[in-house]
């Protein structure tokens, strides 16, 4: 028996793509293991959205060196976003001469073949690199997926991004928007429901522009309708939405649909119009607040989460105060907060940067504010009854799952209930998580 281990960094898209990497390796005859030391094939599925991610990955790749020294037959692959940056594959091969395979974001399905090619080689080992221009790649369908996500299944609806927010590296490493064929997407969702998955999460860098690259009249709202028509008891979530693109139709359909959750991740990034413009976000603070009102009017129980960045070049204390005021006004269920990190090749990296100490101080204030709001919103659930999809048993006799609105809830129960929908009375809240009992 031969084993592989995948270390995944970054977003949900990467988590799902690791399932495709695993699918390809299983097809090549390998089995998954959680132990890096026991693995014959060690894969790093990388992220480059911030410098912190990149540093951590470099550290983890470095840590493989002694393993490879002890057993030269091990195969090491570095794949995904990080490898697509200019000069990066050369830098990785130079810094880590023990790396065998470097593979970009686009043909993860080939990893099994590449591993076999290295494993079969006698004499000098080949160095394989398959990082190529991602500007117009075709969409590869029917690749094996080794799903590991339990009750939830991820489904890509599109790849890439056309937006070029000035801070963001994603359009450079993942290329232009490509929407999958709608019938294929709907068929995949139907198949997953038939297999027993209870929750589907639709994935795309910007799901609201689904279909823009197609000439057949499909858009995200139409895709939602088609998916909602599938029979069965299941939930659908999607990420990520863009405030400039989300349509009224999408909001209204979330409210009236059978299967779509009242839960949305809508990154705001900043509360100052000046900063939003410099970020090339193409919406205003006022439009964002309008969308929030619109979502809440359509779905009073909607859970709204966001991404916020501090320390974008030129952000003044006043701009930052605008962000704090927006956070106070909107009252997000939860916010993912980031310190702006300059990324090579992006427009903002060439702007005048603000000192790290200032960024650090600002994110501290933002986190303190959001924590108090997160707690306040959690407290509001105490005494209510929520329908929860049982997702996991983190400990014996303890279950957890999420509400329709996306809240994490813990409650006593046995693992054989995983995959069921149960009603849970909420007894207490602890910052982002809730605790209760099945009723
Ligand atoms: N620095 C810090 N955060 C970033 N993000 C994207 N690019 C950067 C960057 N250069 C954040 C955004 C995005 C989330 C996925 O990561 O908030 O929504
Ligand atoms: Fe990056 Fe903006 Fe595209 Fe999101 S929409 S991936 S932040 S460029």
TrEMBL record:
Q: Which reaction does it catalyse?
A: N(6)-dimethylallyladenosine(37) in tRNA + (sulfur carrier)-SH + AH2 + 2 S-adenosyl-L-methionine = 2-methylsulfanyl-N(6)-dimethylallyladenosine(37) in tRNA + (sulfur carrier)-H + 5'-deoxyadenosine + L-methionine + A + S-adenosyl-L-homocysteine + 2 H(+)
**Binding sites annotated in the UniProt record for [4Fe-4S] cluster 2:** 161, 165, 168
| Cross-referenced CDD domains | Radical_SAM (cd01335)
One annotated Gene Ontology cellular component of this protein: cytosol
Q: Which cofactor does it need?
A: [4Fe-4S] cluster
Arranged from A to Z, the UniProt key words for this protein are: 4Fe-4S, Cytoplasm, Iron, Iron-sulfur, Metal-binding, S-adenosyl-L-methionine, Transferase, tRNA processing
Compartment annotation: Cytoplasm
**Residues reported to bind [4Fe-4S] cluster 1:** 11, 47, 81
Q: In its keyword annotation, does this UniProt entry include 4Fe-4S?
A: yes
Q: Name one GO molecular function term.
A: tRNA-2-methylthio-N(6)-dimethylallyladenosine(37) synthase activity
Cofactor note (record): Binds 2 [4Fe-4S] clusters. One cluster is coordinated with 3 cysteines and an exchangeable S-adenosyl-L-methionine.
Residues in Radical SAM core domain copies: 147-376
Which InterPro entries would you find in this protein's record? Elp3/MiaA/NifB-like_rSAM, Methylthiotransferase, Methylthiotransferase_CS, Methylthiotransferase_N, Methylthiotransferase_N_sf, MiaB_methiolase, rSAM, rSAM_horseshoe
Query: Which residues does the UniProt record annotate as the domain MTTase N-terminal?
Result: 2-120
Q: Does the keyword Plastid apply?
A: no
Tell me where on the tree of life, at the top rank, the source sits. Bacteria
Which NCBIfam families does the record associate with it?
miaB-methiolase, MiaB/RimO family radical SAM methylthiotransferase
- Name of the protein described by the UniProt record: tRNA-2-methylthio-N(6)-dimethylallyladenosine synthase
Tell me which species this is from: Candidatus Stercoripulliclostridium merdipullorum
Source taxonomy = Bacteria, Bacillati, Bacillota, Clostridia, Eubacteriales
């Amino acid at each position: 028996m031969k084993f592989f281990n995948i270390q995944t960094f970054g977003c949900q898209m990467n988590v799902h793509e690791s399932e495709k990497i695993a699918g390809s390796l299983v097809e090549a005859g390998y089995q998954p293991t959680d132990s890096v030391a026991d693995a014959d094939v060690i894969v790093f599925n990388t992220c480059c959205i911030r410098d912190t991610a990149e540093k951590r990955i470099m550290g983890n790749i470095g840590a493989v060196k002694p393993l490879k020294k002890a057993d030269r037959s091990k195969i090491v692959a570095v794949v995904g976003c990080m490898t697509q940056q200019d000069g990066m594959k050369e830098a990785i091969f130079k810094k880590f001469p023990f790396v065998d395979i470097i593979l970009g974001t686009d043909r993860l399905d080939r990893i099994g073949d590449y591993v076999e090619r290295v494993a079969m080689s006698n004499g000098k080992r080949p160095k394989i690199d398959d990082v190529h221009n991602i500007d117009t790649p075709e969409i590869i369908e029917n690749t094996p997926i080794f799903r590991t996500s339990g009750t939830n299944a991820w489904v890509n609806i599109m790849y890439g991004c056309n937006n070029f927010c000035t801070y963001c590296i994603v359009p450079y490493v993942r290329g232009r928007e490509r929407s999958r064929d709608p019938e294929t997407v709907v068929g995949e969702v139907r198949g997953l429901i038939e297999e027993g998955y209870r929750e589907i999460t639709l994935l795309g860098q910007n799901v609201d522009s689904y279909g823009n690259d197609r000439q057949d009249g499909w858009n995200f709202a139409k895709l939602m309708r088609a998916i909602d028509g599938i029979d069965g008891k299941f939930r659908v979530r999607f990420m990520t939405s863009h405030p400039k693109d989300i349509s009224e139709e999408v909001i209204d359909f979330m409210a009236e649909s059978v299967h779509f959750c009242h839960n949305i991740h809508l990154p705001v990034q900043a509360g100052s119009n000046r900063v939003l413009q410099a970020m090339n976000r193409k919406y205003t603070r006022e439009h964002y607040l309008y969308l929030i009102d619109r979502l809440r009017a359509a779905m009073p129980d909607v859970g709204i989460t966001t991404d916020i960045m501090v320390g974008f070049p030129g952000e003044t204390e006043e701009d930052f105060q605008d962000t704090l005021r927006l956070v106070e006004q909107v009252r997000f269920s939860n916010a993912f907060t980031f310190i702006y990190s300059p990324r090579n090749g992006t427009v903002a990296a060439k702007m005048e940067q603000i000192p790290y100490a200032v960024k650090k101080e600002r994110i501290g204030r933002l986190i303190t504010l959001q924590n108090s709001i997160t707690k306040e919103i959690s407290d509001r659930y105490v005494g209510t009854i929520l329908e929860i999809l049982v997702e996991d048993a983190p400990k014996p006799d303890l279950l957890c799952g999420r509400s329709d609105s996306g809240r994490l809830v813990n409650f006593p129960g046995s693992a054989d209930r995983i995959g069921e929908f149960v009603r849970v009375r909420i007894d207490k809240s602890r910052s982002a998580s809730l605790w209760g009992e099945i009723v």
